[in-house]
Recover the amino acids of this structure.
């Protein structure tokens, strides 16, 4: 039994009073002033005073704490993908499975959301003790995933950082980062990403790579570069001294990966490397 009625959580509360419009619930040790209503439509048949019910507590349209036996799609501190029902002048409202929609303030949005789209959010209590949604989920994602190095994972982009890279919620649950050095294309928030676990960090968070293991990736990179070479008439103005940014923009790979790939092609005698680029042999 809970010692205190808490918003945004499931808890077991005791029936302390029956009325024509529902029952009032409280903790075993609670004061009368703390009791909250479970509407009649939610009360199980034959419920009696002193019965214990498991409920979820939130606030109704008049900002009063109320209990429900319906299951919300999101609880306090958890993460869930919710649909935007409408956008108003004060923020967005999300469908979270309860009678009153969940408010997503503009300040908690990472971009301007639109009606009909799904957003990954967490649930928090604001300064006025109201339950609200936030797209800032970094602190609440879990770092105890079952994944190990080289496992394949899927997740969604929830934040972009010029300094660190692309933040990804694996399975919409676990904290992961695609480091800046691994970012070779433009990502957008909400985009689904398939990646490989490059490393499990000491704190349990995942470091990802969109590249495969080096031998397999080298073969794919070499094949792609050779196809580009053929499509360009047998010459490409890139070599092992080319600028990393130029290589990244053209081939979507790091300079080291490029050097491994053209080294592989050179070993197979498919190309020659000159001061102005590479040529088909």
């Amino acid at each position: 039994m809970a010692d205190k009625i808490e918003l945004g959580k499931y808890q077991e509360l005791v029936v302390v009073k029956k009325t024509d419009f529902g029952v009032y619930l409280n903790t075993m040790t609670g004061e009368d002033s703390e009791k909250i209503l479970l509407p009649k439509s939610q009360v199980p048949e034959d419920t009696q005073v002193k019965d214990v019910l498991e409920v979820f507590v939130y606030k109704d349209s008049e900002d009063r704490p109320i209990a429900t036996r319906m299951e919300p799609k999101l609880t306090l501190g958890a993460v869930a993908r919710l649909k935007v029902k409408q956008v108003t002048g004060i923020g967005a409202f999300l469908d979270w499975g309860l009678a009153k929609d969940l408010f997503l303030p503009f300040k908690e949005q990472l971009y301007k959301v639109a009606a009909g789209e799904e957003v990954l959010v967490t649930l928090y209590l604001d300064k006025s003790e109201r339950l609200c949604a936030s797209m800032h989920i970094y602190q609440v994602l879990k770092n105890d995933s079952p994944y190990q190095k080289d496992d394949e994972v899927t997740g969604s982009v929830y934040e972009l950082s010029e300094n660190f890279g692309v933040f990804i919620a694996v399975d919409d649950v676990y904290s992961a980062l695609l480091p800046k050095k691994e970012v070779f294309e433009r990502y957008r928030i909400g985009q689904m990403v398939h990646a490989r676990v490059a490393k499990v960090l000491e704190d349990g968070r995942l470091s990802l790579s969109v590249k495969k293991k080096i031998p397999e990736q080298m073969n794919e990179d070499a094949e792609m570069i050779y196809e580009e070479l053929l499509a360009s008439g047998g010459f490409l103005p890139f070599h092992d001294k080319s600028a990393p940014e130029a290589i990244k923009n053209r081939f979507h790979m790091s300079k080291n990966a490029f050097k491994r790939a053209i080294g592989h092609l050179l070993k197979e005698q498919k190309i020659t490397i000159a001061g102005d680029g590479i040529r088909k042999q």
